[in-house]
Amino acid sequence: MVSENEDQVKKHRRSFDHHLTYKVLGLLLFALLIVVTIKFCVVTISSGHCGVLWQRFFNGTRVDRFYDEGLHVIFPWDRMIIYDIRAQTIREKLTVLSSNGLPIEIEIAAYFKIDRENLPNLHKNIGPNYAGIVIAPMTKAIIRNITGQLTPEEIFSNQKEFNSRLNIQAYIEYTRNYLKLLNIYLMRISLPETISKAIEQKLVQKEKITEKMYAIAAEKNEAIRKEEEAKGIKTYNKTVASSISPNILTWHGIDATRKISESPNAKTIIIGGGKEGLPVILNEGK
Q: Measuring CA to CA, how many Å separate 76 from each of 54, 59, 120?
């Protein structure tokens, strides 16, 4: 009896251990499933980023929407590709030829960001390496195209216009490739030393000629002003002279004599003693 009881206890213990092993394995598999689910099904998109969903069983890239920052749940067989949509800068330095075949070294900085609304199309048609595939070669091609139409003097002396043309053409090409161009900065233009000195001397001479022409124009304007002033004075004198008659002068002389006679100073007035019959005034003091 004792032996049979011991056998039954051992049998139950082995059965318990067997079930416990399966339970532990089940729990481990469940935990592993949770970890895998979290890893492959739960996607976190951080600030300044957006996601594009690639679906294995539903025609690949989903082009009708993008996924903003935050927590997203997807199927484990799908994949979320995350892009940085904040403003970015790339610098390019290259040597190009002008319209007359002279080498020019140009350095630019392109300031851009991804067009968020077109992010799915960017991913499907270009991919994550868009900077190397599109931006760098496209920007270089635009610079070569514009530079090839201008002489070194035109580029060097009109850098604002050159930069404006560069931005206009680049904006069109960036937009066509699902990107937003914010600005292209012209960092440096380097010409061959002989060409640079020749352009600088020409600009100095041009500035001197401009200053001389300005001085000549100023002198001409001053001469015209003085001539007009003299004509005005002459016209004024003619007008005044034609409006003054002997009777008016006599009247003003009599009026002045009256005012002088009323002053407290002692004087002698001789009526009709002056020219044209005007009074003569002799001041005898107080």
A: 11, 16, 20
Residues in the chain: 286
Nearest to 90 by CA among 102, 106, 103, 107: 107
Cα first-last separation, the chain = 172
Whether the model clears a pTM of 0.70, i.e. scores above it, the answer is: no
Spatial distance between the Cα atoms of 98 and 154, rounded to a whole number of angstroms: 10
Q: Which residues of 123-153 are buried (b: 16+ CB within 10 A; e: fewer)?
A: beebeeebeeebbeebbbebbeebbeebbbb
Q: What fold is seen in the domain 88-191?
A: Tetrahydropterin Synthase; Chain A (3.30.479)
When mean pLDDT is compared across 34-38, 52-56, 150-154, the lowest value belongs to 34-38
Please compute, for residue 235, the number of CA atoms within 13 A of its CA located in the half-sphere on the CB side: 6
Residue-wise pLDDT tens digits, 72-107: 988 888 999 999 999 999 998 988 888 888 888 899
Distance from CA of residue 29 to its chain's centroid?
A: 59
Query: How confident is the model over 267-280, as pLDDT tens digits?
Result: 555 555 555 555 55
Q: Which helix (H) or strand (E) holds 243?
A: helix 193-243
